[in-house]
Amino acid sequence: MLQFQQVNAFQNGDWSLLKEATRDVLHQPQRAEKLHKHFNACVRGAIDAGADGAFLSGAGSCVLSLIYNFNFDTFEIS
Q1: Rg of the chain's alpha carbons, rounded to an integer?
Q2: Which of 21, 24, 40, 67 has a CA positioned 20 to 30 A from the CA of residue 7?
Q3: CB neighbour class for 43 (10 Å; exposed up to 12, middle 13-18, buried from 19)
Q4: DSSP character for 59?
Q5: SS3 of residue 52 by DSSP
Q6: Does the global pTM surpass 0.85?
């Protein structure tokens, strides 16, 4: 089901589907628990900041977030 949501999000431009489509309930929880203890906070922060989806990239070495309409006024760079 999630693969169809991902395809539909990109095909139809319905980026609201990415939040659910990027949730990996099979691999992410185990990898996040063992390799990336701040993963859930990173995903919540990305979603709260306006990301359409966020997930572990590859084997879990980094968190990738997808943002379609980015508002640069949201962040202050110092």
Answers
A1: 13
A2: 40
A3: buried
A4: T
A5: coil
A6: no
DSSP-derived pairing of the beta strands 53-57 and 62-66: antiparallel
The pair of structure tokens assigned to 65 is 């977030």
Q: If you count DSSP H runs as helices and E runs as strands, how many of each does the chain have, helices first?
A: 4, 2
13 exposure class (CB count in 10 Å sphere: 0-12, 13-18, 19+): exposed
Burial of 10 (0-12, 13-18, 19+ CB in 10 A): middle
pLDDT tens digits, 5-50: 566 777 777 887 888 778 777 777 777 777 778 888 888 888 888 8
Distance CA 68, CA 50 (A): 9
What residue spans of 1-78 are helical by DSSP H?
2-12, 18-21, 28-35, 39-48
